[in-house]
Amino acid sequence: MLDASGRDVVLVETVGVGQSELDIARAARVIAVVLMPGAGDEVQALKAGILEIADLFVINKADHPGASELERDLHSYTERPVFQTVATDGIGIAALAEALLSAPARPAHALSGHATIDHLGIAVNSIDAALAFWEKQVGLPVAHRQTVAHEHVHVAMLPAGESRVELLEATEPETTIAKFISKRGEGLHHVALRVPDFDAAIARLRASGARLLNEPQQGAGGHTYVFIHPASTGGVLLELIKDEHQP
Q1: What are the start-end ranges of the H helices in 135-167?
Q2: Which domains does the chain have, with CATH numbers?
Q3: What is the rounded distance in angstroms from the CA atom of residue 227 to the CA atom of residue 45?
């Protein structure tokens, strides 16, 4: 409605940190998180995942003690720009306004249109047996084989164009893949998407109440990943993978 009003600039003030980040991320072109020195907001922001949501930070009441320390803390966690302002005196407002107006627009969706399918994870009783089909009959070459100890799986990666087929074999009984096969048989286990802004995607998923099955960690090939429970995705176990080119 505000966009249709014809205004050149629309400012949206949220109800507070940790409560409406997902809605704002979907609607706003640029997101600024405003903090105050000595008010404890910086701790709340860090815990709420605001570092990943914000395009820039503003330390208002910068004439109060603790402003420099807060800016130093922010720079230790993020490379996003930090502005100090004193609103009552107009200090720093012009530079902040210029930054807001010139900042590039963020993706309209949490995962953005640039997410790509990295691989399809297929649970099998035996990778060697499965390769008789995928490699010898379908013609997909094996590019990589690895054992991921903390996931209790043997993995084989087979490139298929710009995506891959991932074969997963349990290393021992009573593990995730072994239980999956015992219950459902061999077959599609999960879909993996490679996202260009991994940290922001995770923060937005948390803000929306999505159920994450693990904290970001390294998997096959050294890639950073996280799994989202099927209850949050409409019935599909979804894996998000950090783009290798993301810092």
Answers
A1: none
A2: 3-102 (3.40.50.300), 116-242 (3.10.180.10)
A3: 24
Q: For the sheet containing 56-59, what is the strand order?
A: 32-35, 56-59, 82-84
- Regarding beta strands 56-59 and 32-35, do their DSSP bridges make them parallel or antiparallel, or are they unpaired? parallel
Residue 11 in tokens: 């400012």
Q: Angle between the 41-48 and 67-77 helix axes, to the nearest 10 degrees?
A: 10
Residue with tokens 């502005």: 83
**Cα dihedral sign, 242-133-143-221:** positive
**What DSSP designation does 110 have?**
S
DSSP SS3 for 154: strand
Q: CA separation (Å) from 148 to 4, 113, 162, 219?
A: 52, 30, 23, 7
1's tokens: 């409605």
- The predicted pLDDT at position 116 comes to 86
* Per-residue model confidence (pLDDT) at position 44: 55
Cβ 193 vs Cβ 115: under 8 Å: yes
Q: pTM higher than 0.85, yes or no?
A: no
